Amino acid sequence: MAESIRVENVTKEFTLRYHRTFKQVTVALARGRQISDTFPAVDDVSFTVSQGESIGLMGLNGSGKSTLLKMINGVMRPDHGTVRTRGRIAGLIATGAGFHPQLSGKENIMLNAAILGMSENEIARKYDDIVDFAEIPTKFLQTEVGHYSSGQSARLGFAVAIHVDSEIFLADEVLAVGDKPFKKKCLERMEQVRDSGRTLFYVSHAGGSVKRMCNRVLILEQGRLIFDGDVKEGIKVLKYDDERPEDEEHFDSDEELGADI
Amino acid sequence: MTDSLQASAGASVDPAYDLGEDRPWEDPAPSRGLLEVFRRRYLLKLLVRREISARYSGSFLGLIWSYINPLSQFFIYFAIIGVIFQLHDSIPNFPIHIFSAIIIVHFFTETFNAGTRSIVRNKAIVKKMAVPAEMFPVASMLVSLYHVFPQLVILLVAVLFMGWTPTLSGVLAVAIALTIIMTLGTAMALFFSAANVLFRDFASFVNILTNFVRFGVPMIYSYTMVGDRFGRFADYYVLNPIADAVMLMQHAFWIGTLTEAELNFDDKGQAVDRLPDHLFTLGFTMIGVSLLILVLAQYVFSKLEKQIPERI
Question: What was the pLDDT predicted at B1?
Fold first, then answer.
């Protein structure tokens, strides 16, 4: 299989700024205190991914998963090392981030899809599919997104993101929103993506869904890659193996979103 | 073909999409700068449309507000400068003189101000999605440009009433003036939008700068007065590209409304130069200068760009 993602010695440092205003900086300098400090969010990480692999990216909060994903996605650039990808990248990251509350659902679908890299033709072709997937009633599409329920606008964001065709599919925070049926639909869709030969990059804390979705696991700890290999072993390394197989039970609280009409 | 797939998840993995086995290796965050903006012009179009329709959404007068601002400025200057300082007497057709300048000044300051804030305002997108950040200052410029045209229509109606006839050199002058401001405005917006991410102070600084712009161009005073007061230093005055753009607009609209006598002599019968010689040469030179500034701004922007998603 051809390679699809190549990450070589990638380091990303973040700067902590203790003092931001002119007054604070002057005082800190006068007292000989540090003005800023850096820490590596991602520290010398290297790996390659073949086309069609499905990778689970795991690690505790703050271990650098999102930063790594942002570098693969092209939002951030590494300070050292290189990231190279082949083919288009899409995925469920920051879905709905470009939504403008004062624009209608339809306008937001088009804008969001364009931000994610779809062309005018592609959007026209997929518009109906997106609306179907989001399950937003037609009359709502001319309404400002600001008036949508949080679940509705989250679903709209998901629906757009999931319809971007790509060689590489990145998924973060997939289970964080939506009601149970919608979440199930998203997972099914992701399995479809995986089975169609695309490269899948899946960030999750849920051992069960990683087991279900992925055939390889990467684990980050304080920015370093500490494990790269088999899914079951990886989950053992993280000590996540004592958890229930599916963690969907937690999310039933926003069930009313599914029946908004 | 799609039906079988759709049955399972309600949406299909597009069968028309050809999974490439031999796609080239790419940097996921390419730095092609403004070229990338041009390549994704459909997105640019949508962003511009979003700005235009969102700016006054929920307001009753809507787009009319875009004209109230320049019109109110016009009446303030007209009343204070024209009536109280009595410039009506020494500058013939003073309202046209002011209004052709206001269009240019307003275009530039809007581009500069909105452009400077544009990246910070689109924080949600810049932080999380792979979009060339140059997109936003450029969109701000285009939104401001969009608002120029109705103002031009107002001006045109006014000068037509005063017996003005269109000329080819006038059309050329307007084109040059707008090109200068588009280029220079984008350059300034580009540079300051990135700087504003690092320190929000820059937006306030830009506010002050735009005040200078208003008084650094022959709007409420005439070019003739600059020559009178500064003598040979007036040569330096025309090095300001915005002043040249303003004078090109006045060449196009104001000069054509003057009578033969007004054009060549002031109210005391003295011979005057209403506008500098070689105005077109100056204009073309300033397009070059603005392009140079734009290249420089893009260079600085590319240096700062890496910090934008983390510092915003």
Answer: 38
